[in-house]
Design brief:
By secondary structure, the protein is an all-beta fold. It has 2 domains: 184 residues, Immunoglobulin-like (Sandwich), CATH 2.60.40; 85 residues, Aminopeptidase N, middle-beta domain (Immunoglobulin-like, Sandwich), CATH 2.60.40. It is 3% helix and 41% strand. The protein has 1 helix and 17 strands.
Length: 291
């Protein structure tokens, strides 16, 4: 069952899949350590996503459109998190955060640990129906160019990826996610949210108000909220004597379905900060302010 096609220009965070196509600049900034490739420009891409009626497996076909800006290009490299059965550390050897690692923390105060089983498996790369040679290592897909291209020529190729329920956390776990694919991939515009929050000391509750402000219709979207409270007094209680107190961090899950909605969450003390979508799971423009 082919769900939809996704046009270029919008970042897609889809069930643990990370695919980044970057227009490669010839002179990166001195502080930028990202491995760049001169000679090409990515001009467009689409995602075709096929869900199976018989299982939780889905298949993604990414078609990438390239323009060559210099001759002599023999390979093209793309970022794609490779499937890993084991949890990842969260930090790369360079010291930067690993974008393919699972986020830490948990919802409603229930701590969770990374479980692994995240990423995609590339099953093939082709152009005009003909297979291409490729390698998928260190979260980068290296595709061999089939012939020399001159500057100004255009070319496209397709990367096929699979995600199986039995082995990967990017499965749908038996849930019908047609609504999610439809609103993320089939409609124009993007979710826009204006949020405010306040604290009621009498009831010891955090009150959050969300409003969808886009003009392209309402979205249905689960959105996380991170509330951080001040650390308790450093008297050693509740842990090892002399241990430094730690701030409380709790993630709450809100189900956004209406134009305007209010949510309340318990909190013994007023949060020092409240962050919407702390792990950047949702493709949206959002602000949150204290009332």
């Amino acid at each position: 069952m082919l769900i939809s096609r996704y046009a270029a220009g919008v970042r897609l965070a889809l069930a643990g899949m990370v695919l980044v196509l970057i227009e490669l600049a010839p002179t990166p900034l001195s502080a930028d350590t990202y491995p760049r490739q001169p000679g090409i420009t990515i001009t467009g891409y689409t995602f075709d996503i096929t869900l199976s009626d018989a299982s939780d497996e889905f298949v993604v076909a990414d078609t990438i459109e390239v323009q060559f800006v210099a001759p002599g290009v023999t390979t093209i490299e793309l970022d794609l998190c490779k499937f890993s059965d084991k949890p990842r550390s969260g930090t790369l050897a360079s010291g930067f955060a690993d974008p393919c690692a699972e986020p830490s923390g948990g919802r409603d105060g229930a701590a969770t640990s990374p479980k692994g089983g995240k990423g995609m498996t590339v099953t093939g790369v082709s152009t005009s129906g003909q297979p291409l040679m490729f390698q998928h290592e260190n979260d980068r897909v290296r595709v061999a160019v089939p012939r020399p291209f001159e500057s100004g020529e255009r070319w496209s190729f397709t990367v096929e990826e699979a995600c199986a329920a039995a082995t990967s956390r990017c499965s749908t776990d038996g849930k019908d996610l047609t609504w999610l694919f439809t609103q993320l991939l089939n409609r124009g515009g993007a979710l826009q949210v204006q949020a405010t929050w306040s604290y009621d000391a009498a009831s010891k509750q955090v009150q959050v108000r969300l409003e969808q402000t886009q003009t392209t219709g309402l979205y249905r979207m689960p959105i996380e909220l991170l509330a951080t409270t001040a650390a308790p007094a450093a008297d050693g209680r509740g842990g090892a004597a002399g241990a430094a107190p730690q701030p409380g961090r709790t993630i709450h899950l809100m189900q956004l379905t209406q134009r305007r909605q209010s949510f309340t969450f318990p909190s013994e003390t007023e949060p020092t900060s409240v962050v919407l979508d702390p792990n950047a799971w949702v493709v949206m423009r959002a602000t949150i302010e204290k009332r």
